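chain below, 274 aa
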Amino acid sequence: MEIIFITGLLVTGLAVGLAAGLLGVGGCFIMVPVQFWVLTHMGVDPTIAIRIAFGTNLAVVLPTAISGAYGHNKKGAVLWKQAAYLGASGFCGAIAGAYVASNLPGDVLKTAFGLVILLGAVRMLTAKPPHIDEEISESPVLYAAAGIFLGLVSGIIGIGGGVVMVPVMVMGLKFRMHQAVGTSTAVMALTAIGGILSYMYNGWNVTGLPAYSLGYVNMLQFVLLAGTSVPMAYVGSKIAHRLSHKNLRNLFIIVMLYMGLKMIGVYGWLGLPL
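prediction:
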């Protein structure tokens, strides 16, 4: 691998870790475009490249999310019972979602990725935040349904799920913003495991994979990205608790809007270098 690709992945890992700890997201909006660029420039078929980007992204999410959850837990922002409900059902949903993704064209995956994020951003922007005195939902059935949905989305579009999970927690389950971000990092670890296993299995005998690949998970990219993202996720979790509920929410929405437009290809149509 050329030095420019190695440097790009290491720097990307820093940004991914910061986003994971700060916003409770897996950093897919940073990783996936960079990984796709690296792989296609290495000569990998675009459809295989996007699947590898999604699968490897989930592998990086796992240790990064654990690092972020550790930082948020020290601030009391991880609701472990709710995380267990969502994580267990999300694990199953992610396995099914990754199987579906392994049989879809690359362009469909990229467009679906962008549309889901844009819809989530618009809904979060227009929704009223929960009142301080509103109680968090305690229904296991509701958490199971939400977890399966989040896991499916995570597996299909190769994300840790935080970018969809946080809006669902805030608007549907009545979490406060800091609780949603903190708990999201814990849930992402469990949903990521299901997606990782499925991407490995479904890509195991595929031809055209780059060196050091286990199915649709590339271990070289994983090492480069995770090496910088894991320590930075802890730093991001510390910064998150210095921001107000409103500022953290607004920052999250801005990131979602950017990511959705990027993956749909709007900036490319407009000729913008973003």
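The chain has a mean pLDDT of 80. The CA atoms of residues 111 and 264 lie 5 Å apart.
thats it, cya
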